[in-house]
Amino acid sequence: MKLVAPGGADDRELECLTWSARGKTSPEIAAILSLSKRTVNFHIENACRKLNVSTRTEAVARAASGRLIDP
After folding, report:
1. How far apart are CA 47 and CA 30, in angstroms?
2. DSSP secondary structure letter of residue 55
3. Residue 45 burial (C-beta neighbours within 10 Å; 0-12, 13-18, 19+)
4. Average pLDDT, consecutive stretches of 10 residues, N- to C-terminus, the chain (71 residues)
5. CB within 8 A of 7, min separation 6: which ones?
6. Terminal Cα-to-Cα distance of the chain (whole angstroms)
7. Cα–Cα dist 35/27, whole Å
8. What single DSSP character describes residue 14?
9. Cα–Cα distance measured from residue 19 to residue 67, given in angstroms and rounded to the nearest whole number
10. How many CB atoms lie within 10 A of CB 31?
11. What is the reported pTM?
C-alpha cells in the first residue's frame, strides 16, 4: 500500500517539492533522483493539481505550511 499525504500528493511528488523548496531546479532534482527533467516536472505538476495551486512556489508553500514537507 502506498502512503498518500492528506492533500493527495504521493511520496515522489513530495520528494520533488522538498528539493524544490531547497532551491533545486528541475534538472538538478532529476540528477539527484535519477529521473528525467520531464518526470520531475510531471510530479510537480501533479502535486500542484492535488494541492489546488497554480505554481511550483505555491505548491512548496502550501506543502510546507501543511507540514507535508520539511524544507
Report:
1. 16
2. S
3. middle
4. 55 96 98 98 96 96 93 86
5. 50, 51, 62, 63, 66, 68
6. 26
7. 9
8. H
9. 15
10. 13
11. 0.87
